[in-house]
# Entry
Amino acid sequence: MGVTGADAGSARESQAMEKILKKNPKQVNLVCMRANTFRISVTLPEKGDVGVELPKQPLGNSLLIANVKANGVVDAWNAENQDQQVEPWDRIVAVNGKSDKVAALQKLIKAGKKSASVVLTVVRISPEAASEEAPEVAPEEAPEAAPEVVPEEAAAP
# Structure
């Protein structure tokens, strides 16, 4: 049994993870993958929106793209930039270089209408990376001690 996509973005995923951890708290397999990050610059219309569908009640620090609207500004970007298309399940993690909670990101996008354009930082976990299994490490190859993890707050000067 396993859970994929555990960023606690939805209550359903979080609850599924909690059930698994309660059933077997001694064994947790965690696979971390580096996401692909790219930036797109789009010109926003005075009326209308950025051209993507978002969940009705977004949570967290990113805007999950549920769908790209046909004939919207992101769809136009996709037509002109085949190598960096925005797709469903991508996440907007920053607007004009500023990352924040979803409500603030939405405000930054709306404020971008005044300046006519915004730069969206988009993150995607590639399907290839998501489907790959972590390689097994033979006991003789395993490190003797795990490296210490320092919380970001403690690492900052």
The chain has five helices and six strands.
